[in-house]
Amino acid sequence: MRLRARQFEFAFPRPALVMGVVNVTPDSFSDGGKFLDADAAVGHALELAGQGAEILDIGGESTRPGAEPVEEKEELRRVIPVIEKLARHGSSRCDDRTAQRAVPTNIAISIDTRKPAVARAALAAGASIVNDVGANREEAAMWREVAECGAGYVCMHAPGTPQMLHEQPAYAEIVREVGEFFQDRLKRLNAAGVAADQVVLDVGIGFGKTTEHNLQLLANLRSFTTMARPLLIGVSRKSFIGRLLGADVNERLPGSLACAVWAIASGAQIIRAHDVAETVQAVRMAEAIAAARRERR
Question: Where in the chain are the domains?
Fold first, then answer.
């Protein structure tokens, strides 16, 4: 199995990828306002890369439940300077939608957005992956942007917009329904010109789901590996950890690491995290134990 994201290609099995979170926002649930300045965001991103992140996920709109939408112009103002500066340290560019110019690097830049125009500008600035929490859309504009640049695409399950995610979600059977969503989206993506090897699947922990829904998805991650696509799991500092353990947002690292290790043991290939150094260490330890177990057999 491989993941192709412009000039990047990741062949699995291989050590799990850690995606470092860079929120260029004033209101993200965990670190809102800390990296709203472009230079601060770039510095933080490079720090995460130094800690072992192989993907840097740049976002300019909070997707916490109930978050207010950000206008396209403002989202562009926040993220494009950050991506452009990071791209000088390396990435690919897609200028005029066709020409590509590669700069040596081993770090991929991801744009975390629901807006096709923001994705287009980010890809032109040097991003290689679109992390899309709006994959439940019906129209294909975003997917055409991904197809035209040969970018990687994170297809995340969420039942609505961030403004709707505080509403009580209802599923007849959460694991089955998320699996059916992925199967449908893989068909739609293919029809829009996005190849299967460009796609990553994300079950959307915390997005329109109760604590029990989140636990059921984590407990059954192995069932999604039959789709032969990399699984990305984003559990870092999520509120369901706080509800379960009574932990404030800045006290959820142990719970986040427990979920990350479980996800790797269950077949996930990418972990999205705020605390990159700690996550890399936990994941590598889990992988070493799994390798020793295989050797024993």
Answer: 9-296
CA dihedral sign of residues 24, 205, 161, 187: positive
Please indicate whether residue 77 is annotated as part of the active site: no
Catalytic member of 185, 209, 237, 238: 238
Q: Percent of the chain at pLDDT above 70?
A: 87
Q: Is the pLDDT of residue 175 over 90?
A: yes
238 is catalytic: yes
3-class secondary structure, 95: strand
Mean pLDDT over each residue of the chain, to the nearest integer: 89
Phi and psi torsions of 171, nearest 5°: -135, 140
Given the residues 272, 284, 294, 296, the one annotated as active site? 272
Q: Which fold has domain 9-296?
A: TIM Barrel (3.20.20)
Cβ–Cβ < 8 Å for 202, 269: no
More confident residue, 181 or 169: 181
